[in-house]
Amino acid sequence: MDTKIGAVDACKAACNDVGAPPNGAVSTISNTPINCNPSEATLGRHLARRLVQIGVNDVFAVPGDFNLTLLDHLLAEPGLNLVGCCNELNAGYAADGYARSRGVGACVVTFTVGGLSVINAIAGAYSENLPLICIVGGPNSNDYGTNRVLHHTIGLSDFSQELRCFQTVTCFQAVVNNLEDAHELIDTAISTALKECKPVYISVGCNLAAIPHPTFSREPVPFSLSPKLSNKMGLEAAVEATAEFLNKAVKPVMVGGPKMRVAEACEAFVELADVCGYPIAVMPSAKGMVPEHHPRFIGTYWGAVSTAFCAEIVESADAYLFAGPIFNDYSSVGYSLLLKKEKAIILQPDRVVIANGPTFGCILMKDFLHALAKRLKCNTTAYENYHRIYVPEGHPLKCAPQEPLRVNVLFQHIQNMLSGDTAVIAETGDSWFNCQKLKLPKGCGYEFQMQYGSIGWSVGATLGYAQAAKDKRIIACIGDGSFQVTAQDVSTMLRCGQNQIIFLINNGGYTIEVEIHDGPYNVIKNWNYTALVDAIHNGEGKCWTTKVRCEEDLVEAIETATGAKKDCLCFIEVICHKDDTSKELLEWGSRVSAANSRPPNPQ
């Protein structure tokens, strides 16, 4: 049977747990009917009601003259909060962070100048398989098909430039310039975002949002999402072939990848691991999707920069099952993974590939993992090998009194802050590697943007994630170079009364790029970051800032942030040496540099 958007169960079928916390929780979608008078049956209110129905309670927006009337109608909707952002890029990043927690997010900008500004964030959400509703206030419907030149455009009478740009980074585009098909276009766009777990683009004519229309009644027939189903014969054949392959192996392993989330297969992956006895690892972009307190969890598989002893066990296995992997130049450390195709079972959200042999399509990953769990023999050989060679990690050298703070000491203290009531946001840069080494307690959230890797993402994403996950305190680790890109929306965090802890790691430049290819362009102008945040605070809201230069300062700052100032946004600027990086970044940077500098193939 089809599942209705308004039903609670629809979230699981539609959202596929995109952005769900590690425990698999999803947002609750309301189906409570609310009556309204005909004057409220407008396009703007219909769009607002649909957003509330799918679980969006906060919309991130930047006003512009083409979207002002639409914003009025979004504001009028009970259950929908409008969060004004400082710029469109951060509004998009905030919707991205919101979707990671709630399963879907939304932003509203104005025509072209807003749309082309937010598009970088939309592209990032596309790469991360996040359902995101990007709404643009468009031109007056009477201006389509004329030779008029409008403001906020590039000076041509063709209004399709923005649409053409969004076609490559969204899975559906709806240009609403008349009321007759507006209902259908909006519903199709939203349902497509949920089914495909990708962003969609909706442009609404600036003169249409306030107009009533019979199709916008408060209780229309809810649109439906047809659940995806596996091909039963294909599923049986794939399970039989995979079970035969893995049951013959001596020391098989399992590795989780980022597409497990879009496939809603995280729990099924763990259930299979419980049954088969294989050690389980995750690819770096899947951190947080598998419980790290699992008895056979062996860490992050990231080639040469893997968790200690993890790569040795994975790459020496005679069979490995990868669930939802993405093998790009970053996740493969410059294409240097020591894996062999003939040993691999590759599961994608709707496909199974067995070594060099057959491929089975139309098979949902979750169904496959559930069925495979019934066919595999228990084999703990690989984990026993891991247990034999494992040596506990050492601890950073103890700091001398007032010694300049080292990054590894910083993250040792951040580790002690983590609990099921926290979530970690890791910015692109060395925080990728340092946060990857954190051991996440049960229920602790974790997010970063590895596929797209847009510096500055974490500021907006922290805003959005915190707005969605109000039961968690966010710990954001942001480099100084990234912070300079998107710093403004600390202002919005304060307006929203958020209480995240931001560790601003000030090491004087783009450290990750230094390790790939150094040059004077990687050195940035130093800011007085705490003074900047104090200026943004300006006495409004709850904010506390401090600089730390040594471990004693750090201990005192953390005690204050988690104690007396626990209800405040806490901004801790950490002064570090410019060459103080993780050993993993040093290794990864040299390998990625080698991959980037490969000479052209002979012609």
TrEMBL record:
Q: Give me the Gene Ontology terms describing cellular component.
A: cytosol
Tell me yes or no: is Cell membrane among this UniProt entry's keywords. no
Kindly state which keywords UniProt assigns to this record, in alphabetical order: Decarboxylase, Lyase, Magnesium, Metal-binding, Pyruvate, Thiamine pyrophosphate
Cofactors? Mg(2+); a metal cation; thiamine diphosphate
Can you state which reaction this protein catalyses? a 2-oxocarboxylate + H(+) = an aldehyde + CO2
Transferase: present as a keyword of the record? Answer: no
What's the protein name?
pyruvate decarboxylase
Q: Which organism is it from?
A: Heracleum sosnowskyi
